[in-house]
């Protein structure tokens, strides 16, 4: 490693460290290590989850890291089964998994997954190459090859149904966001339907290398999708991507960090405290973490709260009813 890179790594680590004295207490039941389920490389989950795992590990002195997964649907299954201690989940797939409607295990109620803290909203947005001539959703031609992200991801679970609701006839493709971005550039697919926190690394990379159009939902399309799916209107600010000449209308779904409900209470309490009380550190990991603030705790109406997380929120003026705590 050259000296400048070494200095950068040291500076980044130092910028994420909190005084160790802030985390005193009994750790006898804490795990020796932990793993966070994220999603594919090139997406926001992986960038956010990897950085957050490093932040927690460095500050709490427990070895931890991120794992590439298929996204929220798989994360719910892995956390429920105890194969991963933590996972990043979107509330739509979480609701289906709790109800026993996960496509990975139909009939299995994944009810051993608990909420920790709000992350950010996942906008659903559509990207094409500018030279495709596609400027709106209605311009997408019949039979277009659309990349919907990794199989079983939030995008793959909902975006195809949204496109069908809007009358788009397509050929479905799956892959990591970075792979699909490359396929779009190479002409192997026509559209990428992204569902990830903004700015999406793969879109930022695409617009450096190509001229792209980011398609928005018109008022009629917006109403149809909001009426049919567990999403809400969302505005992508013009400043998010240099390809935007104005704010772009999209829809979104909330994401929460989740844990196996059997994780030690004091461990989850300290992780929640660390994350909720240091938003500046989280934003330095990923800009989407601007929404990783305690005020957004009430966006969770799906997952039961882990007792450790609920204790921090209740101690700090954010009321979580006892019937919402596992």
Automatic annotation (TrEMBL):
Q: Does the keyword Nucleotide-binding apply?
A: no
Which UniProt key words apply to this protein?
Receptor, Signal
What does UniProt give as the signal peptide span? Answer: 1-24
Report the domain of life of the source organism: Bacteria
* InterPro entries the record matches: TRAP_TAXI (IPR011852)
The answer, when asked if Signal is one of the entry's keywords, is: yes
Protein name, per record: TRAP transporter solute receptor, TAXI family protein
Organism in which the protein naturally occurs: Alcanivorax dieselolei (strain DSM 16502 / CGMCC 1.3690 / MCCC 1A00001 / B-5)
Q: Taxonomic classification, please?
A: Bacteria, Pseudomonadati, Pseudomonadota, Gammaproteobacteria, Oceanospirillales
């Amino acid at each position: 490693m050259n000296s400048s890179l070494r200095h950068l790594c040291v500076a980044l680590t130092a910028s994420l460290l909190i005084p160790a004295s802030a985390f005193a207490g009994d750790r006898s039941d804490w795990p020796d290590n932990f793993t966070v389920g994220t999603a594919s490389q090139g997406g926001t989950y992986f960038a956010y989850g990897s950085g957050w795992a490093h932040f927690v590990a460095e500050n709490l002195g427990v070895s931890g890291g991120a794992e590439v997964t298929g996204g929220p649907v798989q994360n719910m299954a892995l956390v429920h089964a105890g194969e991963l201690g933590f996972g990043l989940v979107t509330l739509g797939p979480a609701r289906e998994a709790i109800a026993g409607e996960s496509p990975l295990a139909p009939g299995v109620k994944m009810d051993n997954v608990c909420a920790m803290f709000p992350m950010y909203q996942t906008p659903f947005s559509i990207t094409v190459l500018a030279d495709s001539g596609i400027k709106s959703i209605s311009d997408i031609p019949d039979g277009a090859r659309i990349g919907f992200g990794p199989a079983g991801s939030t995008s793959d679970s909902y975006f195809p149904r949204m496109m069908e609701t809007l009358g788009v006839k397509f050929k479905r493709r799956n892959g990591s966001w970075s792979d699909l971005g490359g396929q779009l550039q190479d002409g192997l697919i026509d559209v990428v339907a992204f569902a990830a926190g903004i700015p999406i690394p793969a879109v930022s990379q695409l617009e450096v290398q190509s001229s792209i159009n980011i398609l928005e939902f018109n008022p009629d399309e917006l109403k149809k999708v909001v009426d049919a799916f567990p999403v809400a209107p969302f505005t992508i600010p013009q400043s998010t991507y240099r390809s935007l000449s104005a704010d772009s209308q999209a829809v979104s779904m909330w994401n929460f960090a989740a844990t196996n409900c059997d994780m030690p209470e004091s461990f989850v309490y300290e992780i929640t405290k660390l994350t909720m009380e240091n938003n500046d550190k989280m934003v330095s990991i990923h800009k989407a973490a601007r929404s990783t603030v305690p005020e957004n705790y009430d966006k969770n109406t799906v997952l039961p709260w882990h007792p450790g997380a609920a204790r921090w929120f209740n101690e700090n003026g954010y009321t979580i009813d006892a019937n919402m705590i596992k």
